[in-house]
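Translate structure to sequence.
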């Protein structure tokens, strides 16, 4: 498990209060995640998460960049698209089915970062 996944696990358990057994299904981070590290569903609302934890001491002050934000929005588009994406791990594809079954139309995107900062280009993307 990498530090980002460990951070995601800790956050979901301690702040979102997800049961330890459900966290494995919630975290989709890895090859084919389309920029989304975790997904939660509560009633008819879905939250998409991107977690960033520094892998080295020198990266503690590193801000979320524009590429990360755009990748997350692109992953969201692939998640809700009628067309099946060419790339998607099993968990990502399972959540596409959840959207169809539960008719989810309410989405929240959350960036959970160790240092809580965005680069200016990333902030510009978020505003637009």
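Result:
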């Amino acid at each position: 498990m990498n530090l980002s996944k460990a951070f995601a696990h800790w956050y979901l358990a301690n702040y979102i209060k997800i049961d330890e057994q459900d966290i494995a299904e919630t975290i989709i981070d890895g090859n084919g995640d389309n920029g989304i590290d975790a997904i939660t569903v509560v009633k008819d609302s879905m939250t998409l998460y991107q977690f960033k934890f520094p892998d080295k001491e020198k990266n503690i002050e590193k801000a979320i960049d524009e590429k990360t934000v755009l990748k997350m929005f692109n992953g969201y588009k692939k998640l809700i698209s009628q067309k099946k994406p060419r790339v998607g791990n099993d968990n990502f594809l399972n959540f596409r089915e959840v959207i169809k079954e539960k008719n989810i139309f309410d989405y929240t995107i959350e960036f959970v970062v160790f240092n809580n900062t965005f680069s200016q280009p990333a902030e510009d993307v978020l505003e637009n």
